[in-house]
Amino acid sequence: MTQPTNQPEIASAYDEWAETYDTDLNRTRDLAGKILKQSDLNLAGRKVIEVGCGTGCNTEWLARSEAGSSNIVALDFSAAMLARARARVADPRVQFLQHDVRASWPLADASADLVIAMLILEHVEHLEPVFAEAARTLKINGELFICELHPERQLLGKQARFTSAKTGAHTLVAAFLHKTEDYLNAASSCGFEVIEKNDWRDEDAPADNPPRLLSLHFRLT
Hints:
Layout: H1 8-17, H2 27-38, E1 47-51, H3 57-64, E2 71-76, H4 79-88, E3 94-98, E4 112-118, H5 128-137, E5 138-149, H6 151-155, E6 161-163, E7 170-172, H7 180-189, E8 192-200, E9 213-220
Parallel strand pairs: 1-2, 1-4, 2-3, 4-5
Antiparallel strand pairs: 5-9, 6-7, 8-9
């Protein structure tokens, strides 16, 4: 198990949030889940690495969907989030590991077909090491799918936040602004090509509202 190398307050915040994460009103979390379910990802029989798995909501779908993957390794550095994920997903094909994804992943080279990262990279200051680890652990022609808070919303001051169930305090989770080109440049530098890019709004949002989420689908060349 790799301990976070810095910014342990992010893991601590998610440890505190874990108790209510699944039940809090959270349109960003809910929209991200919908985006993953309707994404054009071939899961059948594939080995998947999920970074930032949280409470395992998406992990559960990846394992139980009709075309579920054959093996999932799910990483997160919040012990409390992982405890809930393990309780949610009791499947021998799923392995949960406590790990800081900014450090080298405890996985072999070219061992996976697909890497999925949902709502995690806003908490990562330097993107290139994460994209490099995705490239290292993926087979050639493997795919990377990311979904993040849209840069336009970040520019408006939006970021992950919650109200503590214990103290009632409102907590902002440390975040870093990444423009769309930052993701694209980091991916390109590590050998990825873009398959698809999409901006996502809430279904009831006016057309002139900034998108809530950005999704990017890459292939390793």
